[in-house]
Task: inverse folding
């Protein structure tokens, strides 16, 4: 328990929560002693509103984002306050402002935070109406709160950004370790389907962490030159990416394992134990749970497991000469090579974490590094392009407007005290997708009830204002700390914060708890119903586009691998960017499929077929990455025209898939004699086998060529088989979806 608290206190989210609480409380205290409490509340409101858009990244974007939130907050506050004199005018203004503020989210994640700040201002403006010059005065107080928070953020900017990237790196290491363990768990046929789905989830989460880290670390490298901590973080990030991508590039053939001999399965289990120890070690490094004794003994333990696996593999190799035995021996050699490379990468991670020297960090070309960051399009055209019911954001905006206004009318009609809490619950809970809204609704209600119960117990025990102030500070800090980790717990602390703020102002704390729970349930019910009945956004509407993007990205990545095999030069930027875009496209597809599995049953049309498409595309990515990795780390012969024929044949299948999905007619490669390519590759392998048998002097060189031909041939045949299967599954999917 104490260890968990200590870990939480070191996180970026805790630092942010502490900063926001300190900024808000210091504003209230200063204004209370120098001016009046009303001013302090408005300044604190400004702090809370602007803090919602505070997320590290590009320094310029970070600052502009918070300034935009400040300006938007002032405009929203003034418009709501000035139109409050007329109910019809207020109703209309609220609807327009909710739509416009929500619509900003089309410009990406940071814009969605600015959007939330604006929506939060709209709701808070209903808390206390003002008139005349009071409106401008309180708008000025909100401005002061925003400026105060921005100044504090800039003051602690370097420390917070470093802490944020450290947290992301640890989370990335943890997810990568869990991904490795899920691959091992899938060896058991009973766990395979669940483990494969788990891998898809981890893949999406890892891609998101990679994207956030790229923006922070690559921008830092450009702006700050040689600061050690940033160079160290970049090197660690590169190693963790390598571990993840090398795992993907070495897929485990589960079908071969299922049909393998008993001895083969036993040796595979030995290798899996070594890999599991490597994953456990990476997980312990991520969570910093090693004590000195465990850390010292962990590497010798892994080395011992690898040695045992090698011995078992050698014994198996000498046990027979059957074709099955020969194929299984080759598979075991690949697995042993895989775990040894991963072990070296693990040791590199440990060295970086314990090192005081960062000279080994390679420089990144300033022009090239920007290509690895997904640039956000801020074109005004996006505003017009999304003005359609085909746009999930547009539908979400309409849905949000109607739901917020419904909550407002319900509050007015039933004369509910603090009815704006209904509106607040709606803007906090509602998301464009059904699944996210459903999850947040459940967690919000449970958290509010728990928070209300705890608050009631405290209120019955004491009425001491100092105790209330301390509880409010702690609850506000923890509500922000836990919002990403555990939304249910965060909602409980939010309830505690609100109850005790009101308890310090008014004596009816128990009534406040009752109203808080009632308003939350009403708001949550409205949000859930709206997401089901008002222009719902189901994943089946967008999954086809995600499949298209994943297929196109895989095709481009395969072409980059083909070009690299020909050129044999250092990896260029286009190869790396293509690989990154493929991982992102696959991550988006994984996430979309996962959300689809949680939607109502009648909306999960063709789920099994889509699952097969996702798994096939994931296998195709692994096969392409495997081919690319092999050509990078091994000295290979010149690529033949038959290699190109195979590559083009695979790309043809992918182009056929795209033609079916888009109903277009993309040009495919013509005059490809795949049978001739197959015959050539197999004849070459047999010829090299004969040379190795007859000429012992050239055995070593020939064996390397034999290994290359066998691996390249197997990978090409596997990729082509996957592409053909994908083409077949796409056809069946489209036939079923059209019924």
Result:
């Amino acid at each position: 328990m104490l260890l968990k608290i200590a870990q939480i206190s070191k996180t970026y989210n805790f630092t942010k929560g502490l900063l926001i609480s300190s900024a808000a409380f210091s504003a209230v205290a200063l204004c209370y002693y120098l001016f009046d409490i009303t001013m302090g509340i408005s300044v604190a409101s400004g702090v809370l509103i602007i803090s919602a858009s505070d997320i590290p990244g590009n320094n310029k974007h970070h600052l502009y984002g918070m300034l935009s939130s400040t300006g938007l907050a002032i405009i929203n506050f003034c418009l709501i306050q000035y139109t409050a004199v007329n109910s019809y005018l207020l109703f209309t203004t609220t609807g327009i402002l909710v739509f416009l503020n929500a619509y900003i989210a089309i410009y990406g994640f940071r814009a969605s935070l600015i959007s939330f700040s604006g929506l939060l201002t709209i709701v808070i403006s209903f808390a206390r109406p003002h008139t005349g010059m009071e409106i401008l005065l309180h708008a000025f107080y909100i401005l002061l709160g925003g400026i105060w928070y921005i100044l504090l953020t800039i003051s602690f900017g370097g420390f917070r950004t470093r802490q944020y990237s450290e947290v992301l790196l640890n989370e990335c290491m943890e997810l990568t370790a869990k991904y490795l363990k899920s691959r091992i768990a899938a060896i058991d046929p009973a766990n395979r389907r669940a483990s494969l789905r788990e891998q898809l989830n981890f893949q999406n989460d890892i891609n998101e962490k990679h994207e956030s880290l790229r923006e922070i670390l690559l921008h830092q490298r450009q702006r700050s030159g040689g600061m050690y901590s940033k160079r160290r973080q970049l090197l660690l990030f590169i190693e963790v990416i390598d571990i993840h991508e090398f795992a993907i590039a070495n897929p485990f053939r589960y079908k071969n394992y299922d049909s393998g001999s008993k001895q083969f399965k036993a040796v595979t289990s030995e290798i899996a134990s070594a890999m599991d120890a490597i994953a456990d070690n990476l997980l312990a490094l991520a969570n910093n749970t090693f004590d000195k004794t465990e850390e010292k003994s962990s590497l010798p333990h892994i080395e011992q497991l690898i040695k045992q696996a090698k011995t078992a593999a050698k014994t198996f190799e000498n046990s027979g000469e059957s074709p099955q035995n020969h194929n299984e021996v080759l598979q075991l050699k690949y697995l042993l090579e895989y775990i040894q490379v991963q072990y070296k990468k693990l040791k590199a991670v440990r060295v970086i974490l314990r090192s005081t020297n960062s000279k080994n960090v390679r420089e990144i070309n300033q022009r090239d590094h920007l290509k690895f960051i997904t640039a956000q399009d801020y074109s005004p055209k996006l505003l017009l392009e999304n003005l359609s019911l085909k746009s999930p954001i547009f539908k979400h905006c309409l849905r949000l407007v109607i739901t917020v206004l419904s909550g407002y009318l319900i509050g007015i009609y039933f004369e509910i005290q603090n009815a704006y809490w209904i509106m607040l619950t709606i803007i906090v809970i509602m998301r464009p997708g059904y699944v996210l809204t459903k999850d947040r609704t459940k967690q919000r209600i449970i958290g509010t009830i728990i928070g209300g119960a705890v608050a009631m117990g405290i209120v019955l025990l004491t009425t001491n204002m100092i105790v209330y102030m301390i509880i409010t500070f702690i609850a506000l800090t923890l509500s922000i700390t836990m919002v990403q980790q555990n939304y249910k717990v965060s909602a409980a602390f939010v309830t505690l914060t609100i109850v005790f703020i009101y308890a310090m102002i008014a004596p009816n704390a128990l009534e406040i708890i009752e109203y808080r729970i009632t308003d939350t349930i009403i708001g949550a019910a409205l949000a859930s119903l709206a997401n089901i009945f008002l222009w719902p956004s189901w994943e089946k509407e967008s999954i086809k586009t995600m499949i298209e993007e994943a297929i196109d990205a895989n095709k481009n990545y395969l072409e980059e691998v083909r070009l690299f095999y020909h050129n044999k030069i250092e990896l260029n930027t286009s190869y790396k960017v293509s690989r990154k875009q493929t991982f992102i496209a696959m991550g988006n597809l994984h996430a979309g499929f996962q959300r689809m599995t949680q939607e109502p049953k009648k909306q999960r049309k063709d789920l099994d077929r889509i699952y097969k498409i996702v798994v096939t595309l994931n296998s195709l990515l692994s096969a392409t990455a495997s081919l690319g990795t092999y050509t990078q780390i091994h000295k290979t012969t010149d690529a033949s025209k038959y290699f190109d024929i195979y590559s083009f044949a695979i790309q043809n299948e992918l182009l056929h898939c795209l033609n079916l999905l888009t109903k277009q007619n993309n040009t495919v490669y013509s005059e490809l004699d795949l049978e001739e390519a197959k015959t050539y590759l197999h004849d070459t392998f047999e010829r090299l086998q004969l040379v190795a048998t007859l000429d012992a002097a050239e055995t070593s060189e020939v064996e390397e060529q034999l290994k290359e031909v066998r691996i390249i041939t197997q990978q090409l045949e596997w990729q082509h088989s996957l592409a053909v299967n994908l083409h077949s599954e796409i056809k069946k999917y489209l036939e079923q979806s059209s019924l």
In short: Residues 1-155 form one domain. The first helix runs from residue 2 to 9. Residues 540 and 605 are 7 Å apart (CA to CA).
